[in-house]
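Quick note —
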Amino acid sequence: MSSGVKVSQECLEQFQSLKLGRKTKYIIYTLSPDNTEIVVSKTSDSSNYDDFLAELPPAECRYAIYDFEFQKGDEGKRNKICFFTWSPDESKVKQKMLYASSKEALRKALVGIATEIQGTDLSEVSYEAVLEKVMRSTF
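Predicted structure written out below.
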């Protein structure tokens, strides 16, 4: 079910910048104050995963893109672009429903995502949890 929420052009531009330029490490997306559009809340070039986690509010939903870098055995470093849906247990039910019904519009607009991560608490989006999921999706 679609909510009718639109994806702002800046969302697409920032994603392309991350995907092609590899300068941006992560992008945090949120809904506009009137809940009609998905907009960029923050971008960062910090490679510290804890900095990224600190951007996920404990009681509000968000979407995020993270350029996840990891080591795969003797094959060296790899990168996977991960799409996060952050919907903490403490967030309001109405907000959770709006984010859930708007997710697909953003997800379809961002072409090139390797892995999707859904989190309701920090343990589900910890570095180790994401690494495990990324390794399973890597051949």
